[in-house]
Amino acid sequence: MIESISIRKVTCFDETGIQINDLKKINFIYGANASGKTTISNLIANPDDANFQHCSLNWEHSQPIKALVYNKHFRDSNFGGSSKLKGVFTLGEATQKDIDFIEEKKNELTKLKDETNKQKETLEKQQDTKTEKENNFKEDSWKFYKKYEKDFKEAFKGFLQKELFKNKLLSESKTNNSELLTIEKIKEKSETIFGNAPVTIPHIPTITFDKINEIEKDELWQRYKT
Predict the structure, then answer these.
(1) Which of 64, 61, 91 minimizes the C-alpha distance to 77?
(2) Gap between the Cα atoms of 163 and 145, Å rounded
(3) Which of 80, 21, 13, 82 is nearest to 42 (CA)?
(4) Which of 128, 5, 136 is nearest to 60 (CA)?
(5) Cα–Cα distance for residue pair 155/189, rounded to 1 Å
(6) Which sign, positive or negative, has the C-alpha torsion 102, 104, 110, 112?
(7) Angle, to 10 degrees, between the axis of helix 37-45 and the axis of helix 72-79?
(8) In the predicted model, is pLDDT for residue 138 greater than 70?
(9) pLDDT tens per residue, range 1-40
(10) Residues in a beta bridge with 143
(11) How confident is the model over 117-130, as a mean pLDDT?
(12) Any residues with CB less than 8 A from the CB of 74 and at least 6 apart, and which?
C-alpha cells in the first residue's frame, strides 16, 4: 500500500507542496474545490506522467502495485463525460475511442431504423396507390362490360364477375397480339359466333312425274282434251 505522498509544483501545489504521511489501508482526503484532491488521485493513477516529475509515492516495502483510480479524469477518458450512460459505469479497458465508436454505431443504427421506416411508409403508400388504381380499373372495366353486355355476354361466360373480368382483361393485354378491331366489327363477329343457332333444313325430295301422268289420265282431262 502507499505509505506517503509528496506532491509539489503541479496545479494548485507550489514549490513547497505538501507531504502526506502515515497513510493507512483506508484514507479519507477532503477539501474545497480546486484544493488538489483530483491532482492527488491523478498522481496515484499515473505517477510517471511528466506533470508529476516533482512528485513521488512511497510504497510499502518499496513495492508499487497497480492502482485503480476512479475520478473525473477516468470518467472523461472512458466515457467522455457522456450523460447517456446514466446509472451505468464500467471499470475496465474501455477508452474514449471505444465509447466514440459505440456512439457512432448507435447513430448509424438510428439512421438505419429511420431509413427503414421511411421505406416502409413509401412502400405502404405505393401499395395503397396500386390497390386504388386496380379498384378504379376494375370499376371502369365493369362499366364498359355492362354497356355492351347485350352484345358480348355469351363471349364472356366464366368471367361475369368484376374481379374475374378485370383479371381477364389484364391477362389478354399481356398475351393477345391479335389485330385491334372496331366495336362494330367485333359485334359482327360476335353475332356470327354467338348469334341464333343454325337450323337444319331437310333435303327437298326428288320430284317425280308419276302423279302428273295419273292426273292426265283422269276422265275430266279426257273430256276437255278434244
Answers:
(1) 91
(2) 12
(3) 13
(4) 5
(5) 10
(6) negative
(7) 60
(8) yes
(9) 899 999 999 999 999 999 999 999 899 999 899 899 999 9
(10) none
(11) 93
(12) 45
Which cell numbers in the block locate residue 68? 485503480
Beta bridge partners of 13: 10
Q: Is the pTM of this model over 0.70?
A: no
CA–CA separation, 2 vs 62, rounded Å?
Answer: 9
Cell of 127: 401499395
Say if CB 8 and CB 16 are below 8 A apart.
Answer: yes
CB 57 within 8 A of CB 47: yes
Residue with cell 512528485: 55
